[in-house]
């Protein structure tokens, strides 16, 4: 029978050529723990609220409270959601007067796209810089980068 680590290497896409592959059992604070209880300082906890620590009691309580109300509702300005409105109002209170409206999104890509659209709306024009940037976003990556992920013509194996 294959080990969990072998299954990880076979079935899950990797973000680096040589992943750590540590089997995580649980996490608390700034540490993750493997199946043997060994602790590791988590330097990659950048997703969501993990930068504030794994399983922080206040964050866990807020998540549980929200889950009891609703999970995901369109947050892009279609529905009035108390947490979103409260956050936008708080930001308006600390930002300069002209920055009183907040566009809430869930990723850096959406934030960049929103900033480009805002710049186009405010200036009333498509600047050469913005158009170069948009073209750049639609171009495929360079061939040497892609070759690592292309399928081999001879088999279903990926090329090295």
What do these coordinates show?
The protein is mainly alpha-helical. It folds into three domains: 1-71, no CATH class; 73-104, no CATH class; 107-160, no CATH class. The protein has helices at residues 4-11, 57-69, 82-94, 108-123, 128-138, 143-147, and strands spanning 24-28, 31-34, 39-41. A three-stranded antiparallel β-sheet has the order 1-2-3, with no helix packed on it. A hairpin with a 2-residue loop joins strand 1 (24-28) and strand 2 (31-34). The chain is extended, with a radius of gyration of 22 Å.
Structural features:
about 160 residues, mainly alpha, 3 domains, disordered C terminus
Largest sheet: 3 strands, antiparallel
Count of runs of 4 or more consecutive helical residues: 6
N to C succession of SSEs: HEEEHHHHH
The portion of residues forming beta strands comes to 5-15%
Radius of gyration: 22 Å
How many structural domains in the coordinates? 3
Distance between the termini: 27 Å
Percent of residues in helical segments? 40-55%
- Which structural class is indicated by helix and strand composition? mainly alpha
The strand line-up of the biggest sheet is 1-2-3
The residue-averaged pLDDT reads 78
What's the gist of this structure?
This protein has 160 residues and is mainly α. The chain has helices spanning 4-11, 57-69, 82-94, 108-123, 128-138, 143-147; strands spanning 24-28, 31-34, 39-41.
Tell me the layout of helices and strands.
Elements: H1 4-11, E1 24-28, E2 31-34, E3 39-41, H2 57-69, H3 82-94, H4 108-123, H5 128-138, H6 143-147
Antiparallel strand pairs: 1-2, 2-3
């Amino acid at each position: 029978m294959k080990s969990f680590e072998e299954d990880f290497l076979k079935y899950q896409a990797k973000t680096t050529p040589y992943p750590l592959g540590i089997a995580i059992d649980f996490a608390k604070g700034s540490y993750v723990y493997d199946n043997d209880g060994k602790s590791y300082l988590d330097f990659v906890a950048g997703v969501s609220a993990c930068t504030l620590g794994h399983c922080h009691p206040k964050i866990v309580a807020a998540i549980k409270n929200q889950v009891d109300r609703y999970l995901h509702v369109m947050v892009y300005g279609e529905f009035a959601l108390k947490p979103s409105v409260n956050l936008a109002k708080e930001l308006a209170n600390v930002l300069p007067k002209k920055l009183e409206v907040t566009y809430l999104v869930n990723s850096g890509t959406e934030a960049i796209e929103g900033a480009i659209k805002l710049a186009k709306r405010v200036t009333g024009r498509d600047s050469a810089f913005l158009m170069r940037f948009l073209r750049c976003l639609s171009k495929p990556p360079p061939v040497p980068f892609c070759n690592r992920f292309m399928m081999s013509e001879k088999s279903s194996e990926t090329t090295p």
